[in-house]
């Protein structure tokens, strides 16, 4: 309410000068006092004469602001100040009205901006109620919309306690339902005394309700309540009505948007479903996809597909595929025809069965079955295939009640037509597939025999090659070993004899310091001093050379290990060293190119039970390939890194469920990496295929890595993997158990898969654990 402060009015310059001028002309003894008796204009005295003077009220809009005190000019001064106060009051009132109008426009604009910023219905409804809670005094409020039937109001958003005590209210019933049905806002400042108040309604002091109207049609309403009585006034009704008018338009737009979005989504789902089932030839997949997509399409609790098994006179119905809420029990299975009376004849006519409320539709075919499945409403569409089979798509809800729209039935009919076509295609394909099944089985059998033959041939070739190489190495080692042992065994005696002879010569020189001239001449001729000094060195060098030859022969025998046909505990480092010794000549620099540097990072490995010669063969093949890759690689520093590591306990990336200590070494890992040109993904994917090689004709058989894979995976239960990128070198990673059966790596199953599937496994995670 607009109020005038008399003191401020009298203190204004223009008012103050005007009042003083008038007081001076009328009666200098006149004064103006406020309601508390404080003097604002004139003499501030409290003598008997002023007490006896007349008091004239200064009034504005029925409110007394103060008094003009004086006998002669008091009345005139009171009228003048009252007039000035009235003008001030009118000016302030206009200003407040303009400010209220501005705030109202600003509020409408801000609210409109907020509401139109979103087309999501739930967001719009929540935003409206947030604004209501902010603007209005209320302990609770709700926004309600009419449902599909147009007879029930359902709460969609709110705050605090629901003013009506229920989320669903019948239109025209109670205070809220009646106010919205009348399409006019209503204030009830004492709910308990309103005749429409029901004892079951929550106790409320005041209630304010306005409808949500668009184009003179109510789509819902907003109701707020307060615990105190006499809370709401006309201004509150106006404010809430203004907000409701903005909200109604925004909500209607959001609903239309969601309806169009839902329609678009259903059209998209229908197109997707049609595409999926039309271009698939798997009948089970078609039916399973259809019931899942239809349930999503119509947003129902259940959807199933059932076949009729038998002739028209007798037979069973079988539900073969279903999609349902998790809380619902499965209904898959067979049902006798008498359990679904009238169902077959209705389906034979290909009539759509549609029921919005099964409790009120006693003549619906199969009603008892549907009710036993907990359905309250259903729609079913039969389909007939070219072969004469009868199938039915059934959709239904268990708890929620809503009428089936014609649009939904049309969508379902379109899906059923597409499904019938897809079923026909799948059945024709199944017939064609059955006709070709025998030939395909024979072709697969021949292919398996051919693959086995190629694999056996590759193994025989490689085994024969390694056997011949082993026999050659063993023979050469044996033949060299005999004369070397003879030389090595006599070198110790020759060394001792030479020392004895030198000692004898020194003894002669001691006792016969003046030798015969002929002896002196011979001493000078043979340079006796040099001979005595150099002879032990020569014999020592011969010993070193003989020892070196013995070590080479021992290494060759260790590499071939023809005497070890069974698994034995061996030191893998010896096998690697013997392999490097055999390849020593290829590691040297040639034709101006630098040699290949070998970097060894050996961990302390336990002896491993394995086929030693076969593991040496694996090392030989991988190292030979690395040398081939580096041979013509234009790089100054060419190197091959060999790293070994013990893998303890279940820290192994391939460890199984076998219990064991973390300190127990369960497997060993060997990593061989080069800094060569690397491999393309296409080459790496075929790396372990038999007879695949990138080397020129005559330079490689393509069997080395294939045989190596079989040795590591099948013979030893380990893994072999390759990591390579073009320009980043190549790395082979081998892991084998310390004892047979200590781990069960996944790669054991690779042999049963195709080569492309085997190479698709990514080893980087295991390599990172290995490097850690």
UniProtKB/TrEMBL annotation:
Gene3D superfamilies assigned: 1.10.287.130, 3.30.450.40, Histidine kinase-like ATPase, C-terminal domain
Assigned EC number: 2.7.13.3
Key words of the record: Coiled coil, Kinase, Phosphoprotein, Transferase, Two-component regulatory system
GO MF entry, a single one: phosphorelay sensor kinase activity
Top-level division of the source organism's lineage: Bacteria
CDD domains: HisKA (cd00082)
Stored SMART domains: GAF, HATPase_c, HisKA
Entries under Pfam families matching the protein: GAF, GAF_2, HATPase_c
SUPFAM superfamilies listed in its UniProt record: ATPase domain of HSP90 chaperone/DNA topoisomerase II/histidine kinase (SSF55874), GAF domain-like (SSF55781), Homodimeric domain of signal transducing histidine kinase (SSF47384)
Coiled-coil residue spans: 429-466
Catalytic activity: ATP + protein L-histidine = ADP + protein N-phospho-L-histidine
PROSITE patterns xrefs: HIS_KIN
Annotated signal peptide: none
Annotated Histidine kinase domain residues: 475-740
EC class: transferase
Protein name as catalogued: histidine kinase
Native source species: Oxynema aestuarii AP17
Classification of source organism: Bacteria, Bacillati, Cyanobacteriota, Cyanophyceae, Oscillatoriophycideae
């Amino acid at each position: 309410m607009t109020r005038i402060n008399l003191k401020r009015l009298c203190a204004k310059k223009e008012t103050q000068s005007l009042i003083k001028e008038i007081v001076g002309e009328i009666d200098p003894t006149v004064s103006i006092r406020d309601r508390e008796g404080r003097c604002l204009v004139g003499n501030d005295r409290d003598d008997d004469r002023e007490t006896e003077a007349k008091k004239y009220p200064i009034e504005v809009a029925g409110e007394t602001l103060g008094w003009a005190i004086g006998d002669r000019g008091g009345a005139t001064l009171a009228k003048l100040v009252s007039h000035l106060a009235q003008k001030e009051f009118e000016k302030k009132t206009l200003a407040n009205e303009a400010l209220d109008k501005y705030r109202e426009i600003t509020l409408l604009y801000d609210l409109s901006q907020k509401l139109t910023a979103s087309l999501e219905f739930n967001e719009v409804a929540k935003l409206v109620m947030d604004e209501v809670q902010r603007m209005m005094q209320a302990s609770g409020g709700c926004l309600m919309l009419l449902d599909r039937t147009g007879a029930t109001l359902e709460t969609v958003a709110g705050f605090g306690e629901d003013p009506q005590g229920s989320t669903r209210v019948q239109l025209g019933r109670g205070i809220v339902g009646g106010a919205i049905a009348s399409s006019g806002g209503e204030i009830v400042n004492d709910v308990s005394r309103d005749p429409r108040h029901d004892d079951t309604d929550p106790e409320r002091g005041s209630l304010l309700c306005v409808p949500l109207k668009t184009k003179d049609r109510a789509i819902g309403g907003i109701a707020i309540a307060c615990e105190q009585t006499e809370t709401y006034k006309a201004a509150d009704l106006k404010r809430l009505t203004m907000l409701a008018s903005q909200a109604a338009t925004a909500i209607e737009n959001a609903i239309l948007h969601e309806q169009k979005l839902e329609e678009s989504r259903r059209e998209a789902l229908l197109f997707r479903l049609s595409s999926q089932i039309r271009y698939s030839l798997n009948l089970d997949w078609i039916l399973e996809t259809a019931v899942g997509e239809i349930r999503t399409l119509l947003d129902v609790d259940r959807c199933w597909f059932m076949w009729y098994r038998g002739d028209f006179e007798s037979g069973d119905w079988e539900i073969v595929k279903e999609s349902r809420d998790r809380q619902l029990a499965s209904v898959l299975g067979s049902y006798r025809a008498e359990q679904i009376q009238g169902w077959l004849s209705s389906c034979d006519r290909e009539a759509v069965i549609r029921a919005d409320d099964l409790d009120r539709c006693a003549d619906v075919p199969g009603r008892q079955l549907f009710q036993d499945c907990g359905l309250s409403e259903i729609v079913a569409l039969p389909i007939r295939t070219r072969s004469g089979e009868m199938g039915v798509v059934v959709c239904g809800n268990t708890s929620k009640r809503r009428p089936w729209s014609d649009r939904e039935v049309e969508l379902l009919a379109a899906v059923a037509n597409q499904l019938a076509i897809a079923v026909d295609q799948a059945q024709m394909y199944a017939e064609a597939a059955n006709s070709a099944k025998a030939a395909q089985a024979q072709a697969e059998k021949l292919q398996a025999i051919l693959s086995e033959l190629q694999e056996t041939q590759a193994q025989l070739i490689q085994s024969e090659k390694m056997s011949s190489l082993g026999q050659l190495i063993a023979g050469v080692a044996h033949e060299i070993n005999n004369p070397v042992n003879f030389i090595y065994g006599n070198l110790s005696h020759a060394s001792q004899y030479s020392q004895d002879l030198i000692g004898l010569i020194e003894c002669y020189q001691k006792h016969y310091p003046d030798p015969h001239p002929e002896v002196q001449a011979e001493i000078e001729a043979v340079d006796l001093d040099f001979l005595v000094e150099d002879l032990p060195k020569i014999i020592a060098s011969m010993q070193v050379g003989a020892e070196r030859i013995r070590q080479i022969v021992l290494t060759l025998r260790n590499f071939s290990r023809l005497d070890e046909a069974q698994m034995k505990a061996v030191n893998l480092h010896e096998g690697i060293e013997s392999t490097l010794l055999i390849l020593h000549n290829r590691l040297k620099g040639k034709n101006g190119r630098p040699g290949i540097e070998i970097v060894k990072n050996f961990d302390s490995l336990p002896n491993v039970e394995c086929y030693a010669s076969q593991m040496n063969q694996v090392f030989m093949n991988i190292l030979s390939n690395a040398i081939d890759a580096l041979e013509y690689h234009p790089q100054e520093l060419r190197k091959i890194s060999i790293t070994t590591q013990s893998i303890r306990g279940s820290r192994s990336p391939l460890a199984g469920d076998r219990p064991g200590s973390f300190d127990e070494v369960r497997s060993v890992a060997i990593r061989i990496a080069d800094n060569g040109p690397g491999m393309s993904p296409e080459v790496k994917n075929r790396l372990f295929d038999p007879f695949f090689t990138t080397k020129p004709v005559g330079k490689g058989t393509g069997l080395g890595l294939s045989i190596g894979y079989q040795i590591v995976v099948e013979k030893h239960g380990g893994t072999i993997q390759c990591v390579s990128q073009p320009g980043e070198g190549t790395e082979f990673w081998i892991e084998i158990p310390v004892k047979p059966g200590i781990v069960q790596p996944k790669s054991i199953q690779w042999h049963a898969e195709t080569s492309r599937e085997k190479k698709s496994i990514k080893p980087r995670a295991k390599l990172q654990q290995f490097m850690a």
